[in-house]
Design a protein that fits this description.
By secondary structure, the chain is mainly alpha-helical. The protein is built from three helices and no strands. The model has no long low-confidence stretch (mean pLDDT 81).
Amino acid sequence: MGFLQELFKFVGLEGRLRLEWISSAEATKFVKVVTEFTEQIRSLGPSPLAKSDAPPLEDLELPPLPQAAAGGGCGCAQTAT
């Protein structure tokens, strides 16, 4: 993690990497950490590596998710009869 933080600093992305250990039972902590980190990233502004002619993320049209990823089920829980 220390190496990655130094690498991010070197390429101009200091403050954009964070590691937190959160149990699945700590939903409140997860929300707090994600909210704080999101605010931190927003306060840093756009990535210095971003191309100025690139469209903002909000304008990107994403392809539809495959059925399994969209919750349509992959059949993993089905049992053979």
